[in-house]
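Researcher: Quick one. two chains, 620 residues in total.
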Amino acid sequence: MNTAPVLQVKDLTVTFRTEDGLLSAVDRVSLEVGDGEVLAIVGESGCGKSVTAMSLAGLLPRTATIDGSVRLDGVELIGADKRTLRTIRGREVAYIFQEPMTSLNPVFTVGHQIGEVLRTHVGLSRQAARDRSVELLKLVGIPSAERRISDYPHQLSGGMRQRVMIAMAVACDPKVLIADEPTTALDVTIQAGILDVLRELRQRLGTSIVLITHDLGVVADLADRVAVMYAGRVVETAEVHELFAHPQHPYTAGLLGASPAAGRHAESHRLNEIPGLVPVLTEQPDACTFADRCPRAVDTCTASQPELTAGQHRVACWNPVREPVEV
Amino acid sequence: MAVAEAVTAGTPLRSNRRKVVRRIVRNPLAIAGLVVLGIAVILAVFAPWLAPHEPTETHLSNAFAPPGTAGYLLGTDDLGRDVLSRIMFGLRASLHVALLAVATSLVIGVPLGLIAGYFRAVDALISRFTDLVLAFPFLILAVGLAAIRGASLGNAAIAIGIAQIPGVIRIVRSETLRLKSLDFVSAAIVEGAGDAWVLGRHILPNAASVVIVQATVAIPAAILGEAVLSFLGLGIQPPAPSLGTMLSDAQQFASRAPWAAVMPGVAIMLLTLAFNVVGDSLRDALDPKASRR
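Model:
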């Protein structure tokens, strides 16, 4: 993974103009996604993970101001003109939404919708697009794809629709697939199937995936690297096993402690919750944003804001967790 | 199985169209409505050849002939004019006004509604314009237009159409607002779709059913609107008949010759009902979520 990253985000800052003044939803976030790599962005509601994803896909409303740099395959997207953006987005970036019930157009058959993407972006003929659509549906594990292609979205279950969404997303063989909570709205048994599909796509097509989720089980299952976000900032980033084994930021440790999937509280212990809510930032505080919820807060925490450390396992904390078992 | 047939046959879009037709054909109410509309259109279009009498021809000796009188199937009015012939020509005027009015309101209202719902910047402007038009009572608007452009059937139609624009704008706008927040619209934007494509391919087809329903409500309203305007002398000019003027004329002698009022009244009722029934079944047939029978 030492090749140039496919997606390189540097100091991405997103601010919204609201009636209460400027609200910074994403604050100097830097991320890198390598070829065929799965990067998970984790955090609780309101931490800015979806806004980060939406800014990558160009879905932010006009009240948002975006600063920083997003490079896709070396091409700068922030500040690029509309035409460049449209071609790049259509072909290179794909997006999977959380809610499969509304992410397909209800008045067209699924075959028509996948075919349309192929005809407009790849320039296939009607027949070729149809054949390719069947192939794609098979790729994402839809049984009897030849018949399903004439179905309307409402005739499919949620899991099937999510598979169709994925088929549509990879139709143009995108470099980066942004999956915004792709399994949150699905049953647990279906979730596993969808994760399998994503894993297989990564292996077969080499697609890089940015996975937005709050489900650490999903992260453990699929991700190579993890970025933990809190209040619009990346507070810790590391390779997935390293992060699960040695969380350094108290927030990450808290998330792991609050999750039954991590397997640490299998015996009748209560799950630990993190008290309080993610603060909404209308101004830049000169303190760690997690300080008032942090069990390890020290004096420095309320005096100035920590920056990410350098290296493979980076953390932004004045008093990181140092477990006795150090690598 | 019918579903399997549709799957093997042709492109999705074509089989879709076929499904819509099949659903309508299988609905007896829709067929009844279509038959009534068909007859009305034929009578209206071919009135000059089908009508047994000239609609304006008076036979004072035959005034107030009851329905069934030889040569006057539906009777005559106070001037001895044949009610059947006048209904045929009246249908002509009514359909003409209704279609012209609704076409006017849709052609202007649908795009404005889409734009208002989709582009927040112009929403306030268009919505305030809507309120402005709504602030004028329908009659005042129509009288004003007639005063400016002269009383005629075409001007009455335009006046009715303009009065109906706000309703169309509001309905299309709210539907657009609802649809644009759905993920498939965002998905299209990520795919690189432009505004026109999103509006035309994703929002308009999904909004079509509410537009159709609105149109089927608007057509009967326009027919009645024409009757009101003609009654006030702002629509069709006497002695030319429309269903509305026939009704209002017959008022004066309703107790003596009720058929002169009842017959055009029944015609209005049937026409209105037929439009409603057809619109209803069309909406059901166009909805892919409707159960397949």
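The interface with chain B takes residues 57-59, 62, 85-91, 93-95, 97-99, 102-109, 111-112, 115-117, 120-121, 126, 130, 146-147, 149-150, 152, 154, 165, 168 of chain A (CB under 8 Å).
Researcher: Thanks, that's what I needed.
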